[in-house]
Amino acid sequence: MDFIVKSGNPEKQRTACLIIAVSQPRKLSRAGERIDKASNGLLSTIIRRGDMDGRSGQTLLLHNVPGSLADRVLLVGYGKDKSMNEQAFIKTIETMSTALKNSGASEAHTYLTDIPVKGRNILWKVRATVMQMNNSHYHFDALKSEKSEKGKVLRKLIMNVPGRRDLATGEESILQAVAISAGISMARDLGNLPSNICTPTYIAKQARLLAKGQKLLKVDVLEEADMRKLKMGSLLSVSAGSRQPAKLITLEYKGGKPKDQPVVLVGKGVTFDTGGISIKPGAAMDEMKFDMCGAASVIGTINAVMTMNLPINVVGIIPTTENMPDGLATKPGDIVTSMSGQTIEILNTDAEGRLILCDALSYAEKFKPRFVIDIATLTGACIIALGKIPSAVLGNHQPLVKDLIQSGKQIEDKLWELPLWDEYQEQLNSNFADMANIGGRDAGTITAACFLSRFTKKYKWAHLDIAGTAWKSGDAKGATGRPVPLLCQFIINQVQGRRGQ
Ligand code: BES
Ligand code: MN
Ligand code: ZN
């Protein structure tokens, strides 16, 4: 879909569909009032009759409105002005998108950009519109014999901005939103692919494809033999039970000066998590194909950063493997030695994410990182604690945690902090090794982060647990692409030297 910004009066727009906001109770937006005047009160008559009262979710499609040059006028309700906020705005765009899909318009001009959203300017609204339109037009039908695309599709969306001075920054907003959206789609595609296609080898191949012909991106893939040389005993203990070879993928984006310390992103890439010998129960086990969504978010983010041409260095590290039960699989009670030299008693082979991340986190040291952020579908406990609205964040450097939370607010991809207090560490005590890989039933998300914290002492680090946010279950089952938006916003803020606002 093409996106354009324009500034002008609604009655002058020659378009297939003009989109006008209506709020409760029965109030036309400024653009709506102009169309009303041009049409001798047609819109206010319709509203008075009660066909459109401005409720959120309500739409009304009108044809041949007199005084307007548009083929159609679409009225979109958004509720009361005082309940308008970021989520409500995004929901209104979703409503608009659905109504447009049901119309015959292949092009449209929206004035929903004049809806007042507290604390948000026109650039935020343009970006949110583009991102939501792309999100709602996403479909994954690569593996269906009949493709879902039917009838006319929207090819172009024009967004109105208040003045001509907003055009240049509006265009910039669009470029950013399009890049981030492509990153999100890429992460969703990788997540949605089944584990018989999306293997560690497949992910490595996609990473290499991403770097093809790109001067600023370098990709390096370590094989199991390389990992053995690096003494990554913990990572290798997870892949021991799988016929698919594990890979350790590194993507280096060098948009900054050679000496600039990189932001390092480490993404959990378990392409299928059966639990291993501590095997999972059968219900919804198919969803464990999404256990590589952390890895997918790293690839999606690097793609977006590259498209935006950001002057910064970013390294993506992806440990990727299956977690399978097998004659050679690791068994409960087995003890392994991690790359850091610390020994781990594996009391539960289903706590495998931390076992591959810890070696990847030790490996990250060699990049002399400015920050390290790991992203992982790490614990079911995270869903119990926070549900599926925010991802959890924990870390060893408060300013980093705060900046991540702030980035999430800016782009509506929320985080909530859990405490990483020392008192929790003792839950990881082992009678036989330096630590156990599980910390019991209490505070599962925190003890998982405690485990990782033992491998991240040499740099500033934050951990994102995306178990509740990386995919949706039920009828809308599918990967969400989160937290690509948050990571992109964080990196954009790093470039702009902007901390929280
Ligand atoms: N990939 C899972 C976490 C998960 C489970 C994410 C369900 C989303 C939905 C992870 O590898 C895992 O199995 N974690 C265990 C840890 C436990 C054994 C300490 C869990 O959460 O049960
Ligand atoms: Mn597991
Ligand atoms: Zn897992």
Explain how this protein is built.
The chain has 501 residues and is an alpha/beta fold. The protein has 2 domains: 2-177, Leucine Aminopeptidase, subunit E, domain 1 (3-Layer(aba) Sandwich); 193-496, Aminopeptidase, CATH 3.40.630.10. 34% of the residues lie in helices and 21% in strands. The chain has helices at residues 30-38, 42-49, 86-101, 122-137, 167-192, 200-211, 224-229, 233-239, 293-307, 353-364, 380-386, 398-410, 444-453, 484-495; strands at residues 2-6, 18-24, 27-28, 59-63, 72-80, 107-110, 156-160, 217-222, 247-254, 263-267, 269-273, 313-323, 334-337, 343-346, 371-376, 391-395, 415-417, 435-436, 461-465, 471-472, 478-479. Strands 8, 9, 10, 11, 12, 15, 16, 17 and 19 form a 9-stranded mixed beta sheet that branches. Strands 1, 2, 3, 4, 5, 6 and 7 form a 7-stranded mixed beta sheet that branches. The model has no long low-confidence stretch (mean pLDDT 97). Bound molecules: ligand BES, manganese (II) ion (MN) and zinc ion. Ligand BES binds next to helix 11.
